[in-house]
Request: fold
Amino acid sequence: MSPAGPEAYTVTGLARRVAAGELTAGAVLEAQLAEVDRREPALGAIITDMRERARAQAAALDARIARGERVGPLAGVPIAIKDILDVSGLPTTAGMGIHRERIARTDATVVEHLEAAGAILTAKLALTEGVYAEHRPPFPAPRNPWSAAHWSGASSSGSGVATVGGLCVAAIGSETGGSIKLPAAANGASAIKPSWGRVSRHGVFELAATLDHVGTFARSVADAAAVLGVIAGPDPRDPTAAQRPVPDFAAAVARGCEGLVLGIDTAWIAAGADRETATALDAAVAELAAAGATVREVRVPDVTDMIWDWFGVCAVQTALAHRDTFPARRDAYGPALTQLLELGNRMSGCEYQQLLLRREDFRGRLNALFTTVDALALPVLGFPVPTCARMAEVDDDMIAGFHRFTCPFNLSGHPGVIMPNGSNAEGLPIVFQLVGRHFEEDRLVAAGAAYQQRTDWHLRRPVL
Reply:
């Protein structure tokens, strides 16, 4: 193994070397575990360490390669997963103390796909309680690798921290209202939130069924896409998994963004983003234009109602997901999740239906916008990553700010690709996103990869 460890390789480059016998999966894994032992005490991103299981996986993979067998596209790649995905024989806590003894009997479809592709699963990662808003005992918040005093995101906090902190080569996360995008922004990761239905949710702990998306974190868009290409696709055990072919993401990475029509709503962004964020976005758009994209000014449909409607839709569906344990075990729930569940339980059918109708109207307006452009460029966070102290005093304005550029696209189900495009005066990451048409993740990947071929923000690493 290189002295630099797995962090020195791309996902596909590492897998090729393992498959060719130039590196062994066992050596790659031990190098990765050495980094975990060195860095994890400062980061606190892991709930369940899976190293012994991983060692058995790596040994089996090396034996197959020694016999001359063909192996999958993620051969030997160390990947960590958010602790909402079932792994047979291990607990799926979903960040909740009441689920510490909830032992999975089968594997999630995503886990099956990863292991069939040769990935080595190393850990189950930290998250907020019930995949929602706050970290609760016995599972503390992981620490931002750039600054322990700053927020690490929610709910896929462990996935963002582990990826940027060097605990894995790539990670699996999920998003319901911003839970991939916000940790990517807080920690400076590249990530993909695919279209709703692109990835099976079988064996995944549910927050809100029609809002939940499983996605990927990595150090580059190309790496995140390589992992997404493995976990995506139809699944007979999840009838909501779309019956659509998975794009050729390797071809997309090579294609570039020549001819892409990129929309930007300058007024909407200016109303919700500070100067540093807006300036960094302008620079990113200029790079994409230099790479061949055409930039067009657009008007995004009003998202004001969507931010708050998201909470109502999420609340009702979360109440359904927790009906076996709430309110029966109310004392085991934290205040944020309790508040959401109570909202869901008291909402009338007419109120909920009104939210669904507005949701469909918004989705239709976005779809109409995407007949004029291929993608939208926008921030993820419109303000600097907040401190942990500030997060203890969140108000409605801050909540709206967090969700302005995220949860409307969870209501609509449109895909997004997220990547770093700067750093602020405190040295913390600035991140932007490209949002596109349903099931056209490959267009976004092509543009994101083109941007990262021209810039090096995604290559910058915190000193640990």
Q: What stands out?
A: Residues 151 and 386 are 6 Å apart (CA to CA). The chain has a mean pLDDT of 98. The first helix runs from residue 11 to 19. The chain has one domain: 6-459.
